[in-house]
Amino acid sequence: MPSTALVSFDAAAPVAATPRRLHAAWGRVFDLPEGVSRERAAARPALAARPPHDLAGTKPYCLGQLSAGPGAFGMELRFLDDRLLDTLDAWLAWGGVLPIGDGSGRQAPLVPVEAQILEQASWEEMAADDSASTWLVRLLSPTVITSRGRHLDTVPPASLATSLHTRWRQWSPATAPELPGRDALERMLATQDRTHPVSVSLGMPRSDGRGRLSSRRITAREGEMRISGTPGAPATRVFSSLMSLARFTNAGSHAAFGMGALDVEAL
């Protein structure tokens, strides 16, 4: 069952918390330990839901909204598999600490002080949530869409739909709605685009295996969009269900770098 949780931390010093660094830190909590295969983990309930670090596809967790204040830091976590809530609970119970690198080899340890589940919805409930026709979509972290190997300079609603549908089919194929053709989505959906470009570093160690990508900077989008569709139209109804899923996952490319976190409000 897709879920969201909020974890509050005590921070002794300011945290250089980029989405990529935070995602990497949580990977040490939620990813399978190095050397443990998915086949071996499948027989262990405590490991079965944890993805391999190099999973080909979307991982079942991502970052949502972040907040920071004097001596405090808060993170929303989004899960497509609620078994990872048990992993989070176990990590908290044995006194887990989240070390956040600052890019220079130093680490700022974040000590959790409170955690709570914010929201849960079944795949069936999201599939049935098909009545909205207008949405305000806020890009909480830099978001980029890739088409045929090229980063687009916009975030087309049809591409958001495709990205979210891919995640749905990966984690609950039996409940995934049928995605309309791209032409139908583009004809049906209108957008007021209030996003702006931002430059994002994808800097990762060369050993990360991404080759040329490890030292690249790309242009992504931040801001918000208002998306509208024809009420009751089949394409609008499917898009409504996919926007419901956006509460629990990210969209677009480079999600492993913490990109593509959305906040969607049906209007």
From TrEMBL:
It comes from the Bacteria. It comes from Actinomyces slackii. Residues 137-261 form the CRISPR-associated protein Cas6 C-terminal domain. This is Uncharacterized conserved protein (DUF2276). InterPro entries: CRISPR-assoc_Cas6_C (IPR019267).
